[in-house]
Amino acid sequence: MKYSHHIEFKVRDYECDMQGVVNNGVYQNYLEHARHEFLQTRGINFAEVTESGINLVVIRAELDYKNSLKSNDTFVVRSLVRQISRVRFEFQQDVYKLPQEKLMLAARITGTSLNANGRPFVPDMLTQLFITD
Questions:
Q1: Residue ranges of the domains in the chain?
Q2: Could you name the CATH architecture of 5-127?
Q3: Pick the catalytic residue: 13, 17, 124, 133?
Q4: Among 2, 67, 75, 103, which one has the highest count of C-beta atoms within 10 angstroms of its own C-beta?
Q5: C-alpha distances in angstroms, 128 versus 4, 82, 122, 124?
Q6: Is 73 annotated in the active site?
């Protein structure tokens, strides 16, 4: 698969649960940070977009946990984004443990943008990011 962006992380001790693995909810933090960094690399500042009256929101999150990360593991989040309808876009994000490149999580995050009136739309600044099939 051809990804649009990747970012590396290292698991911190406090992200792990009593079983010694990364808590399932922490993966959503990793994915969100990767999406924000992806936008930043394309000249889109998430905070500035929000201040302009456009809210980028998640409307669905599908996470398939394949394996567990542990404290001090290094990993990469790889992302791509595509438009899936007139008003929705989807990030496909995969988490790979390094250096083995072992798939740990496969996610599909569906989002939309809401204008100042709360109506969904996809702004032009985002359409330039989409991967076409």
A1: 5-127
A2: Roll (3.10)
A3: 17
A4: 75
A5: 12, 10, 11, 7
A6: no
